[in-house]
């Protein structure tokens, strides 16, 4: 078990369940991510991660690599 921090990432461009699956898969592939929940309706991803292994900017990069934009 490791320390975990929770981040909420606002995402634009998601329109279907396939989009949600792409974002979830991309975030889960980041080393240090423990749990991911993406909500299409709110356009948010909630991510639990180990802050000793991953920076929040890496989470945003993963969303962008999946083809979506992060809203700051």
Strand content: 25-35%
Q: What is the average per-residue confidence, as pLDDT, rounded to a whole number?
A: 95
Number of helical elements: 2
Q: Give the CA-based shape.
A: globular
Structural class comes to alpha+beta
Distance linking N and C termini: 30 Å
Counting DSSP E segments of at least 2 residues, the number of strands comes to 4
The proportion of residues forming helix, as a percent range, comes to 25-40%
> What integer value in Å does the Rg equal?
11 Å
How is the biggest beta sheet arranged? 4 strands, antiparallel
Which strands sit side by side, in order, in the main sheet?
2-3-1-4
Poorly predicted regions are none
| N-to-C series of helices and strands | EHEEHE
Q: Mind explaining what this structure looks like?
A:
The chain has two helices and four strands. It has 72 residues and is α+β, with helices and mostly antiparallel strands. It has helices at residues 17-28, 56-65, and strands spanning 5-12, 33-39, 44-49, 69-71. Strands 2-3-1-4 form a four-stranded antiparallel sheet. Strand 2 (33-39) and strand 3 form a beta hairpin.
Protein traits:
72 residues; alpha+beta; four-stranded antiparallel sheet; 2 helices; 4 strands; globular
Short summary:
This protein is α+β, with helices and mostly antiparallel strands and 72 residues long. It has helices at residues 17-28, 56-65; strands at 5-12, 33-39, 44-49, 69-71.
């Amino acid at each position: 078990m490791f320390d975990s921090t929770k981040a909420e990432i606002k995402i634009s461009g998601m329109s279907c369940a396939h989009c949600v699956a792409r974002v979830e898969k991309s975030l889960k592939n980041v080393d240090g991510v423990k749990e991911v929940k993406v909500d299409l309706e709110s356009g948010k991803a909630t991510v639990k991660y180990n802050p000793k292994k991953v920076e929040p900017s890496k989470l945003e990069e993963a969303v962008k690599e999946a083809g979506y934009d992060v809203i700051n």
